[in-house]
């Protein structure tokens, strides 16, 4: 069998990366797929006290374990299983859990900085960047982080001003230039999703 297809999905926090990935999978009717969230590869911080974990810049490329992610993608490309870390946003570190992931024909990896690392970028067959204006992303992030990530409004606002917004403009937005497709998530994007689905099917057909 030919190597698995690798799709990278970047975009600012709460731009709609996970939502767009789900739309692609639903439209394409794909099942033999692994979805990896780059968030699971934030560095382990269990040896740091909680007050120090709060202060880390989680929107800087150095906060992620790209060596481990690269190694894991290479293993999956060789049809080898991996033991993937699982991140705990409420504890600001990796959880005790490990997820055993079996190789599949399609590997989708999503994350704010997934197109920032040149070695990981080179593994992609298709690269996507999801676009959404800062204000809408901030509102969606605020609602999500209070509901799902155990964060207070004050903490969300402080983090957004101190790191999330400046790092987006410094490190994340510039990676748009590496994307094959830009998906606007503030307007209808059904055609962009259709084009990606068609491309996935074409590549899979050629690799049979
Ligand atoms: N087109 C959209 N319209 C309204 N809400 C959306 C849309 N896309 C995503 N959302 C919502 O915004 C939040 C962040 O979306 P998500 O896909 O999780 O973003 P990301 O994976 O980029 O962080 C979620 O609560 C999601 O339901
Ligand atoms: N302990 C952490 C780790 C990361 N974050 C934030 O998560 C954002 C990326 O996740 P998305 O699902 O929004 O793409 C990123 O902007 C980090 O600021 C965090 O708040 N706490």
TrEMBL record:
Its EC number is 2.7.1.48. One of its GO terms (biological process) is UMP salvage. GO terms for cellular component: cytoplasm. The keyword Nucleotidyltransferase does not apply. InterPro entries: P-loop_NTPase (IPR027417), PRK/URK (IPR006083), Uridine_kinase-like (IPR000764). It catalyses: cytidine + ATP = CMP + ADP + H(+); uridine + ATP = UMP + ADP + H(+). Residues 6-189 form the Phosphoribulokinase/uridine kinase domain. This is Uridine kinase. It comes from Mariniplasma anaerobium.
């Amino acid at each position: 069998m030919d190597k698995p297809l690798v799709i990278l999905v970047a975009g600012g926090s709460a731009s709609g990366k996970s939502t767009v990935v789900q739309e692609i999978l639903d439209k394409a009717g794909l099942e033999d797929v692994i979805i990896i969230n780059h968030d699971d590869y934030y560095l382990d911080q269990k040896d740091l006290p909680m007050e120090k974990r709060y202060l880390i810049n989680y929107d800087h490329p150095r906060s992620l374990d790209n060596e481990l992610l690269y190694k894991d993608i290479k293993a999956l490309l060789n049809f080898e299983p991996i033991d993937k870390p699982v991140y705990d946003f409420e504890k600001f570190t990796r959880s005790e859990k490990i997820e055993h992931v079996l190789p599949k024909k399609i590997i989708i990896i999503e994350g704010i900085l997934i197109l920032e690392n040149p070695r990981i970028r080179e593994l992609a067959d298709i690269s996507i960047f999801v676009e959404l204006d800062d204000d809408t992303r901030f509102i969606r992030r605020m609602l999500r982080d209070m509901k799902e990530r155990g964060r207070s409004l004050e903490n969300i606002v402080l983090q957004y001003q101190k790191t999330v917004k400046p790092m987006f403009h410094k490190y994340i937005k510039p990676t748009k230039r590496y994307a094959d497709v830009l998906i606007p998530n503030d307007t209808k994007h059904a055609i962009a999703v259709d084009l990606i689905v068609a491309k996935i099917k074409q590549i899979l057909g050629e690799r049979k």
